[in-house]
Structures are given as C-alpha cells and as structure tokens.
Inverse folding.
C-alpha cells in the first residue's frame, strides 16, 4: 500500500473559510501545466538528476561495503546540510523498527564538544569514516575531516586509509585529488543532483546500506512515487497538488510550514524537509530578476510532545501557518496499556488500549482542534515504517519542492544566500583569494564595535 495524502483540510470548508476552493485550483491550471513542462524540459536537459536516481544499480555500493563489514560495525559520517540530514533521517527512521546493528554517527557541525562526544562514543577500532562533500572545500566538513584524519593517522598509521571512505565529485575537487593520491574507497556525488536533493545518491545510500537498510526497497518506493507524479493532472499528482495548495496558502499569508510527525522515528525527516523547503524556495529574486522575497519558513514539531508546547500557538496564535501531520498506521510493534486501576475513572479508560492507538487518536484530536480553529492542515499517512514508504516520501517532497519553485518563479536549485556566508567565512579564516571578503569582514567588525551595544 502506498503513502496516502489527505488534503481535506487544505480546501475551503465552513471551518476553514479562507482556504482555496476546488475552482480556485482550476484557475491555476495554465500555471501548473507550464510548471510541469518546465520540469520536463529540465529533465531533458539533465538538470533534475534526482528523477533518474530510482533506476540506479546499487551493486556498486553494496559490493564495496560487503568487503568492509567484517572490519567495521560503526560509521562516522562527516558532512553538513544535504550531506548529513538525509543520512541521519533514514537511520533514525528505521533504527528501532528494524533493529539495526551497525551504529551511525553523524557529525554535521564544527562544535568541538559535539565532535568530542561523538569520538568518545565511537569505537574507533571498528569505525569507518565517511567524509561527504562534493567540492572538497566545505569549510565545516573539511575542518572536522582534518581533525579526524589526523586522529586516525596517529592511531592507525599502517592502514588509516582503509578506514576512510570518500564521497565526492567524480572528476574534480580537492578530495578527488586525495583519492587519486591515496588508497581510499570512494563513492560519487553526481553533477546534476544538488546537495539537498542527494539523499538517494551515494550521499545517503552508502551510510544507509552500511547500517542495514534495504536501499533497493528505498529506491523502489521512490520509483513508485515518480510514476504517481509524472502526470500534469494535479488531482492525480500528490506532489503537484500539495505544492499548489501550499502555494495558494502562501499567497494568503501562510508563510510558515509546520511539519509534525506523530512518530519519533520520523522527527529527523522533518529536519530533512526543513532544508529542502527553506533552501529551495526562500529566494530574493525570481529567475527573471524581479525582487520578491518569497518562501515559507519550515518549522518542525513532534506529536504528542509539542501538543504541550507549540499547539497552543498553532490553534490560538497568528493564522499564518500550514500544518502537515505525518501519521503511521502500523508501527510493527506495540504495547497494550495495562488496566492496573480498574476502579478509577481517571485512568481506567486507557486500560487495554494499544499505545499506538492513543498516539494516532492524539494526532486526530490535534487535527480537529486546528480545523475548528480555522487552521489549514493536511496529513501524510504511512501504512507502516519501512524503506519503501520512506522512499515514497523523499521523492514526493523533492518533486513538490521543484514544482512549487516553478509556481513561485524562483530557481529551486540554487542557494545564493548560503554562498554569501561561505565566502565571508573563507575571508575571515584567511583562505587565499578571498582578501576582499576579509577586508569587508574587518570593516563590519570595526563598525559593529563602534556602536558598542553589548551588555
């Protein structure tokens, strides 16, 4: 059974009178078909490489890893953004459900205490290091890699290179040179797949296969969703329909997108979604140069935990959000709540009920509360937690993101705001060729100091 998309509460009703009507969607048929044909053109021009990923041969990943499994049962992923979020999301989604044996550590920051905690927790004798960066120049990833590589060289001078794998560009970049000069196992980051769309490339598949996930099932789910999302009829294409509805709500001032999984295992998938949605759609300019400042701010919440922290805001605060619930029908494991106090009405109604039933009843109750408060919401329903349905979700949201970018008239594949911060960092850290950025930073620091607004 496939993922199901319940968009009932994104459409106009007595409870949500400001939501778009079905006829409002019909008025955007021309724009949707234009977006669809733009996607087809991009695919023909090999711009949207993620569309082809479900067809890849995974033996080139599984065979090298099979040779390494006897030596290693932990992996340390060094990456950031799209080189880390998907890895962690897939692992945490299935770690408990599948009883995964290999341990996956993901270091995606330059916080020294975070790195120390990871290295203290890892058994380095049994740990395979996987450094992931397409360019080989990402400051955060490379700084941590240099520290970890130094540790590995000192601890394992005879074979440290066999304890490191490199995932990078096929032809160019610093790490590609390192691979050519050393004895490292390497994997590839395709040219036509951007970082935040790369979880179904070697970037995410290597760590997933190592940890014991069925990456063929993951790709099969993605392929099935690709088939569902290839038509231009929005009423049969869940990615286009959800994208259009979010776009229309955005135009009505709903500039925040809340993703709220009712499953701890899917919480990190909301992190993956946050980067995909924010970095792709948060743009100052359209593709033709108009200044627009568009985008929805993605926020993650966790049911039921955040019913006791955020839902008060969602039901009675500003009506500026679209809410997406992630619900799992069959967890594959459950507890039955014991009826230990049958004489007490305060708790005896819980007795005999499955714990997952309570969780999903709470999801429905929150949906009802939001709907009655006039707050638009939708639900993505997982029949069960497994690789196939995760592959479906990943592909659904990747297509939805590109489609929504086309409707907004922005480039969903670039990230100029991120690049500005990168080059400023290069300048302040003294990288050769970034002297102008260093001078700009020095000037900024001097001007800020002159204002002296520090308690």
């Amino acid at each position: 059974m496939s993922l199901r998309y319940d968009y009932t509460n994104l459409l106009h009703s007595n409870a949500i009178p400001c939501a778009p009507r079905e006829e409002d969607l019909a008025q955007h048929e021309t724009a949707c078909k234009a977006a669809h044909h733009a996607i087809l053109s991009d695919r023909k021009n090999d711009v949207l490489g993620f569309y082809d990923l479900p067809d890849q041969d995974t033996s080139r990943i599984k065979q090298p890893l099979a040779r390494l499994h006897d030596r290693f049962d932990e992996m340390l992923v060094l990456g950031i953004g799209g080189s880390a979020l998907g890895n962690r999301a897939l692992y945490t989604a299935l770690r408990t459900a599948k009883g995964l044996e290999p341990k996956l550590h993901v270091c995606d920051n330059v916080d020294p205490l975070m790195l120390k905690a990871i290295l203290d927790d890892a058994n380095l004798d049994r740990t395979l290091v996987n450094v992931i960066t397409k360019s080989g120049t990402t400051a955060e990833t490379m700084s941590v890699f240099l520290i970890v590589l130094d540790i590995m060289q000192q601890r394992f001078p005879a074979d440290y290179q066999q304890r490191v794998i490199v995932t990078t560009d096929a032809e160019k970049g610093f790490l590609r040179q390192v691979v050519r000069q050393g004895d490292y196992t390497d994997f590839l980051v395709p040219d036509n797949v951007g970082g935040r769309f790369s979880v179904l490339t070697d970037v995410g598949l290597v760590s997933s296969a190592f940890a014991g996930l069925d990456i063929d099932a993951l790709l099969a789910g993605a392929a099935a969703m690709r088939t569902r999302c290839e038509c231009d009829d929005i009423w049969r294409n869940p990615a286009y329909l959800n994208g259009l509805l979010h776009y229309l709500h955005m135009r009505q001032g709903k500039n925040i997108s809340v993703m709220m999984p009712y499953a701890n295992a899917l919480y990190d998938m909301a992190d993956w979604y946050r980067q995909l949605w924010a970095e792709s759609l948060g743009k100052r300019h359209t593709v033709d140069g108009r200044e627009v400042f568009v985008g929805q701010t993605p926020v993650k919440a966790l049911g039921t935990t955040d019913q006791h922290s955020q839902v008060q805001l969602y039901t009675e605060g500003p009506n500026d959000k679209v809410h997406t619930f992630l619900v799992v029908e069959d967890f594959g494991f459950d507890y039955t709540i014991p009826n230990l106090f049958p004489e007490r009405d305060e708790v005896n109604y819980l007795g005999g009920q499955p714990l997952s039933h309570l969780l999903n009843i709470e999801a429905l109750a929150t949906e009802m509360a939001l709907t009655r408060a006039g707050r638009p919401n939708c639900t993505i329903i997982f029949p069960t937690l497994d690789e196939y349905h995760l592959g479906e979700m990943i592909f659904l949201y990747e297509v939805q993101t590109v489609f929504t970018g086309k409707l907004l008239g922005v480039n969903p594949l670039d990230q100029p705001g991120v690049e500005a911060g990168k080059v400023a960092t290069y300048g302040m850290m003294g990288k050769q060729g970034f002297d102008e950025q260093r001078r700009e930073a020095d000037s900024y620091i001097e001007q800020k100091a002159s204002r002296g607004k520090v308690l």
